[in-house]
Give the backbone structure.
Amino acid sequence: MLSLTELRRAAGALDSRLACSRLERVAQVDDVDLILSLRRPGGSAAESGKCHVLLSCSPEFARLSVIKEPPQAPQTPPPFTQYLRAHLGRAGFGGIRVLGEDRLASVRLHSKEGEFQLLLSILGPRSNIYLLDAAGILLFSMRPLEETRRELARGQVWVDPHSALKSAGIIWRRSKMHTGSWRKGRRSRICRERFPRL
């Protein structure tokens, strides 16, 4: 599973590599792996201009990466992929970036139906991939919301996990608690403290 630093590095590299490219194909090989095949202008028939981007919301191995060849997808695509194909056909690539301090990678796409973003949220067992419209409305999710973010609903504004905690009156903070000196072989440990919203 990618760390925030690794996710930022991957997003930065892909943002440059995919500039001016266009979406050619969307494939979903299982319940957690989505593959976007994009081609840059001037790409030859020998695939030199094509790039296959893997967005994985696997609970154990969620990541954003490039793969050489996409695995074979099922003949009947899942509902999430059907929706993407219906609304993002030949969409132009609008950039990719990490949002804030959370492990959220936003892939912006623009089609004849408007602006969209695919949002890869890396949250361990609650990792998911969401499709949002230009207004931030949640249109579809790859994994069931009941398994990842119960507070979200299709047709409503998507809220990032940190904001959801704030609205619930809880802020989780990580701090280092030093329990002794390094000379005595003691290590610092990370604890999570619960603070009520003021």
In short: Confidence is low (pLDDT under 50) at residues 167-198. The chain has four helices and eleven strands.
